[in-house]
User: Which sequence fits this backbone?
């Protein structure tokens, strides 16, 4: 786990703790379904942040005989558990509370207190979203300042390999939207004197969180099974190899994330004909050295060499990645 992802999770943890305490008190006094859903949401976010920190800690263990590639995928597993917790606790609890408020409405008390609590939550969540967006841009190596951070983070979120950064980003954005929905619902309920809007807001928040939990669970399942690197990264790997003297073609590249910032690469290269074993080993060592130096997330690399008997001499053939995965 890199520093930006670790920092984003800690910021989310303390923000969620503060927000949960504020919302829980307001929900207990005000008896609002939307406020209850938001308190439950913040509780879930708090627990999820703890799960992510557990995953980060366990993923940092060094490789051993039983796990030669390390424990990097621990962070994906605990992110998956966090998604299940979000769906089972937050989403279902919000939907249930909202349903009861619609079917059997209960008056909302202390509207002013609820409004103040939700307004403060908007400020907390805005700060957390801002930090999460910056973590996204740092993770993908994009430079952005001011309002450009918003567009850059949204545009590049699917390129993020670090599940903690991605989870915190979506979690914080959903939390901000949920607070805004709850604030509007309480205001409309007071304005129209119709408590049903409070229950509807709780149902909307629950449905939104359920969809988010399913999406994040699927995302982490994909990483646990073994997702390949982004095509741009794969192309860079091939280009670096082709620029090494003695390499005539890259026949195959297979990649798989073995951690949030760790990539496994298996590749097959063709070398100039009639290279002896010692020179071929030097070519392989040079390819490995340059790839690891220029692409920091590559931690493990295996290279197979085949002689290009169809190329009698230099210059190199046209770059042809016919089996890139």
Assistant:
């Amino acid at each position: 786990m890199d520093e930006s992802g670790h920092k984003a999770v800690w910021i989310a943890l303390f923000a969620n703790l503060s927000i949960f305490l504020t919302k829980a008190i307001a929900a207990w006094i005000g008896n609002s379904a939307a406020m209850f859903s938001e308190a439950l949401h913040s509780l879930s976010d708090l627990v999820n942040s703890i799960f992510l920190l557990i995953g980060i800690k366990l993923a940092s263990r060094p490789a051993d005989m039983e796990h030669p590639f390390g424990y990097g995928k621990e962070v994906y597993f605990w992110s998956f558990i966090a998604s299940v917790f979000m769906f089972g606790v937050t989403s279902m609890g919000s939907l249930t509370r909202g349903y009861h408020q619609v079917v059997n409405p209960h008056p909302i008390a202390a509207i002013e207190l609820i409004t103040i609590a939700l307004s403060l939550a908007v400020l907390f969540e805005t700060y957390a979203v801002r930090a999460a967006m910056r973590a996204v841009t740092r993770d993908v190596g994009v430079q952005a300042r001011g309002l450009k951070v918003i567009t850059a983070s949204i545009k590049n979120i699917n390129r993020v390999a670090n599940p903690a950064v991605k989870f915190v980003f979506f979690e914080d954005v959903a939390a901000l939207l949920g607070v805004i929905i709850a604030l509007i619902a309480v205001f409309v309920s007071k304005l129209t004197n119709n408590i049903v809007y409070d229950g509807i807001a709780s149902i909307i928040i629950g449905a939104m969180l359920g969809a988010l939990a399913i999406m994040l669970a699927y995302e982490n399942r994909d990483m646990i099974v073994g997702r390949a690197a982004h095509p741009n990264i794969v192309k860079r790997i091939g280009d670096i190899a082709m620029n090494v003297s003695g390499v005539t073609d890259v026949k195959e590249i297979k990649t798989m994330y073995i951690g949030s910032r760790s990539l496994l690469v298996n590749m097959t290269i063709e070398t100039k004909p009639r290279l002896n074993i010692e020179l071929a080993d030097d070519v392989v060592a040079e390819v490995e050295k340059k790839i690891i130096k220029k692409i920091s997330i590559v931690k493990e690399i295996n290279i197979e060499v085949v002689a290009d008997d169809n190329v009698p001499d230099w210059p190199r053939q046209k770059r042809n990645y016919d089996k890139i995965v």
User: Anything to note?
Assistant: The first helix runs from residue 3 to 30. Confidence is low (pLDDT under 50) at residues 311-325. The longest strand covers residues 247-259.
